[in-house]
Design brief:
3 helices, 3 domains, single chain
Amino acid sequence: MRCRSCRCEVRSGLRVCPQCGATLKRRGFLRRQVRCGSCQAPVEFGLAVCPYCGAPLRHSWRRYILLLVTLTLLATVAYMLVNYVPWPKVRTMVSNAKLPSGVFLATPTFTAMPSPTPTATRTRTPSPTPTQHLALRLVAPQDQERFEGLDAQVILSWEPAGTLAEDEWYGVSLRFTADGVVQYGGTWTKDTSWVVVSDFYTKADQAERAFQWDVTVMKQTGSQPDGSREGIALGPASETRTFLWY
């Protein structure tokens, strides 16, 4: 190689130029040289004999050993994944995994029963032009309000829609999730409030404790065999609110 100071040809391996005394520096110097195990002198990588003391140079097998260990570990992991992981069960679990329910993002219409069945019971003849009501305004609880414990008193309230006729009611719709399935509940009442019974607290899933509710003015047109009322809505449903009951 050449000295960068005097441009004199210098024997490879020297650190100081023998002509001008300048320090010889090369990029990657340490990378291209190894140290003799006998005299500790730095020599070029790839030589078989040390040019300073004549001792044979021993090449390190450390890099090859590390490479072999790495390949062995990778092969072991691949073998365990192929032979010990129950892939059919994993695929079954993934296919049966339930996605989060989006029930509380929707606004289903009021339903008096989960699956109402028409009956041949006596019904009242509805008025040809029933009175239409505006959407009711909810009062309490506020949206996303939180209640704690089975003994908490949850009271749903709303503003009145004026004087109700004999066959008109406030229909309260309550939705929650039980066993991963949306359940419906509620009541028909003449009052402008309703106390949510504790049975809904015990039925709801432990992971999803959100209860969605709204109120609609309903006109009774008949009754179910179990005594529950059925009818038609006399106006749009109120806004939908959600309360959390943990």
